[in-house]
Design a protein that fits this description.
This protein has 195 residues and is mostly helical. The protein has two domains: 100 residues, Rna Polymerase Sigma Factor, Chain: A; 55 residues, Arc Repressor Mutant, subunit A, CATH 1.10.10. It is elongated and about 55 Å long. The protein starts with 7 loop residues before the first helix and ends with a helix.
């Protein structure tokens, strides 16, 4: 599998002491990793911190990497574990958090601006924003295994095979987790809408 990994030669150079190859790997993967982490934690500064920590951990564990999976898969696993640990740490420290509400898209635009451009009616904008906030809030309450699968499949649009590799589970388990997550969200959002 990893023989076709374009990052493997860079990683091997890094393992042999060429630290400058880490910069190339960071350039290749920072954007996607940041988007994933941000969707998980919904806080830009936390996402930046976790992105940096992902590469720091990868660097210090560079000799432990075994080419059974792609380098990018390994980086996402590190990021996912850091997100989970941050969520656990925050939930025990702060209780339920209120996070940043503006979502930054890949092109640098903000979700609110995107909604405004599509719908000039202030009542519709408020209703859409309320629905997005309710969805984001509901996603944050999902158990880690369901939340991770949902973000990877539904928000990141990653292939199920890649998600299965990343999460260390079968494709069927990915499907099941996403289905369960969607059912939980449907129930929460329905009860939120009724309330």
């Amino acid at each position: 599998m990893s023989a076709s990994d374009p990052d493997l030669p860079l990683w091997q150079e890094l393992q042999q002491g060429n630290d400058s190859t880490l910069n190339l790997l960071m350039e290749r993967h920072s954007g996607g990793l940041f988007n994933f982490i941000y969707r998980y934690v919904l806080n830009e500064q936390d996402a930046r911190d976790l992105l940096q920590e992902t590469f720091v951990r990868a660097y210090f564990k560079r000799h432990q990497f075994q080419p059974r999976a792609k380098i990018s898969t390994w980086l996402y696993r590190i990021a996912l574990n850091l997100c989970r640990d941050r969520a656990r740490s925050r939930s025990t420290k702060d209780g339920k958090l209120t996070e940043s509400l503006v979502i930054h898209l890949e092109d640098g635009a903000e979700r609110e601006r995107d909604i405004t451009a599509k719908s000039p009616n202030p009542a519709e904008i408020a209703q859409t924003n309320e629905a997005l906030l309710a969805l984001e809030s509901a996603i944050q309450t999902l158990p880690h295994d369901l939340k991770a699968a949902l973000i990877l499949v539904a928000l990141e649009n990653r292939p199920q095979k890649e998600c299965a590799d990343l999460l260390g589970i079968t494709i069927k388990a990915v499907e099941t987790r996403v289905y369960r997550a969607r059912k939980i969200l449907e129930t929460k959002l329905t009860s939120h809408h009724v309330a």
